[in-house]
Design a protein that fits this description.
The protein has about 240 residues and is of the alpha+beta class. The chain has 2 domains: about 60 residues, Arc Repressor Mutant, subunit A (Orthogonal Bundle), CATH 1.10.10.200; about 160 residues, YebC, transcriptional regulation domain (Alpha-Beta Plaits, 2-Layer Sandwich). It is built from 7 helices and 8 strands; from the N terminus they run H-H-H-E-E-H-E-E-H-E-E-H-E-H-E. It has a 4-stranded antiparallel beta sheet. It has a 4-stranded antiparallel beta sheet with strand order 5-6-4-7, with helices on one face. A hairpin with a 3-residue loop joins strand 5 and strand 6. The longest helix is centred in the first third of the chain and has 21 residues. The chain is globular and about 45 Å long.
């Protein structure tokens, strides 16, 4: 399969404005807090997979080391309880399934803001479980081709513990289980592959291919959801 990859981003992409940088740092800090909370208050990244991943992603947005350490200390002192991860499910125009992951300290505020964006974008917020059964938690890595073949990445990725590989125009998407994401990344990089980006995602078990008009409406809705302060990630089953 070839074509565009939504996971293709510049690994060390720099913020172009102070506002963008601040928002990136805020998201990274909240992700660290949530990771400590989900890890039972464990602040050691070697013993807390989610915290290790959150720290890696904080490095990716160029968050200073002292900011990261301060966020970990604050989260550990509070037991990571000030923010928690919440998942919202909904439908975009044309019945496109959408999952929104947020880190919040105020459920009422976050729910109201997300519902407002769904309504405004021609979609609707759904009850828990209405959409999530169409997705599975997974890891994804974007790996540069650099002239290498599909067979080469297949061999390297599978031997590293990956589950699936999709070929795009100038990159490969390597899919893993949630808990093997970091080990597969390390193995591929050790083997000389350039990993541009990696994420924990909600991977759709099946995609929908809408009309161009419906696609644009959903992409606008997703963009509007992504800029909400509490939102960490947005996933859909758009092809």
């Amino acid at each position: 399969m070839s074509g565009h990859s939504k996971w293709s981003k510049v690994k060390h992409q720099k913020a172009t404005t102070d506002a963008v940088k601040s928002a990136a740092f805020t998201r990274a800090s909240r992700a660290i807090t949530v990771a400590v909370h989900e890890g039972g208050g464990i602040a050691d990244p070697n013993k807390n997979f989610h915290l290790r991943l959150a720290i890696e992603k904080a490095h990716d947005v160029n968050m200073p080391k002292e900011n990261i350490e301060r966020a970990i200390e604050k989260a550990a002192a509070a037991g990571g309880a000030s923010y928690e991860q919440v998942m919202y499910e909904g439908y975009g125009p044309g019945g496109v399934a959408i999952i929104v992951e947020a880190a919040t300290d105020n459920h009422q505020r976050t729910s109201a803001n997300i519902k407002h964006q769904f309504d405004r974008g021609g979609g609707s917020l759904a009850s828990p479980g209405a959409v999530s059964f169409q997705f599975a938690r997974a890891g994804v890595l974007v790996v540069e081709k650099n002239g290498k073949s599909y067979d080469a990445i297949l061999d390297a990725a599978v031997s590293s513990g990956a589950d699936d590989i999709i070929e795009r125009t100038d990159m490969f998407e390597v899919y893993t289980s949630a808990h093997t994401l970091m080990s597969v990344r390390e193995n591929l990089m050790t083997a000389g592959w350039m990993v541009d980006n990696w994420e924990l995602i909600m991977k759709p078990t099946a995609h929908i291919t809408p009309t161009e008009d419906v696609r644009q409406k959903n992409e606008t809705l997703i963009s509007e959801l992504e800029i909400l302060e509490d939102v960490q990630q947005v996933f859909s089953n758009l092809e």
